[in-house]
Automatic annotation (TrEMBL):
GO-annotated biological processes: oxaloacetate metabolic process
SUPFAM superfamilies for the chain: Phosphoenolpyruvate/pyruvate domain
GO function terms (MF aspect): lyase activity; magnesium ion binding
Stated family: Belongs to the HpcH/HpaI aldolase family.
Domain HpcH/HpaI aldolase/citrate lyase: 1-234
Name of this chain's protein: Citrate lyase
Binding site for substrate: R67, E131
Keywords from the UniProt entry: Lyase, Magnesium, Metal-binding
Cross-referenced InterPro entries: Aldolase/citrate-lyase_domain, Citrate_lyase_beta/mcl1/mcl2, Pyrv/PenolPyrv_kinase-like_dom, Pyrv_kinase-like_dom_sf
Cofactor dependency: Mg(2+)
Amino acid sequence: MFVPGDSERKMTKAPACGADVVIFDLEDAVAPGAKAEARQMTRDWLKEQRGGAAGGTGQPVPQYWVRINPLDTPLWQDDVEAILSGKPAGIMVPKAEGPAQLNRLIKLLYEQESRNGVIPGETKLLPLVSETAYAANGIASYGKRRNASSRIAGLTWGAEDLSAAIGASRKRDEKGRWTDLFRMVRAQTLLAAHAAGVAAIDTLHADFRDEEGLKRVARESYQDGFAGMMAIHPSQVAIINAAFTPDEKELAEARAIVELFAANPGVGALQLDGRMIDQPHLAQAIKLLASIGEAPGT
């Protein structure tokens, strides 16, 4: 979930929001004149929270990340130098234009990690890969093994900046579905992330009052193979978490598949409830059970 980096009130509420990751935003959520104050406030907050708990709420402690300013601006280096002493878990990179561009950031991170007592390579990256036409045209490059970086924890995309960049007056059709361009960008992000072996994170649902719409798109995102989804309001977090949690029917089927293959060692294809299942079904079932910490056969 995004939290403005210059709002102490919203920062204070962040640990109890229920999100797995809280991203303190130094980019779009902060006015140009407040950038310096935001980076200092974010750094100080991170230092205070390091090693702390979620305020006794019973909520798991989220990871704290920071969205810096774009790498083609003079602001990002000041952002990184300020916040690394707060030891964020990771950095979201807006308007990322490809793996090669990230090398400048990675070089600075190694320098700042050594100065701030951070294990080299520990600060992860989440590039926003679609916010310009140039960036969107190169999404597949993140999935090439020679461009893979151990720092990249996932890939995500956004529609707002891209629509402005290309002059699109709509992003969704009359049925509320993404138009062709944005569907293509979303699919490329999903494929590139899986090719690189990192998390695919779906974009946000901008209308935070539209709970029914969010339920639909979040569940579709989970079913399409995304590992998570971004949120811009605390009310969205519980809905997204529910959508990305396997239900009992899915878990029961996964257990049945695993048990069936365990009972028939050496068999490549079997029948379950009148349909054929084979090794890809078994792999998917094992992966699903692993997502809730359940090992096959337990």
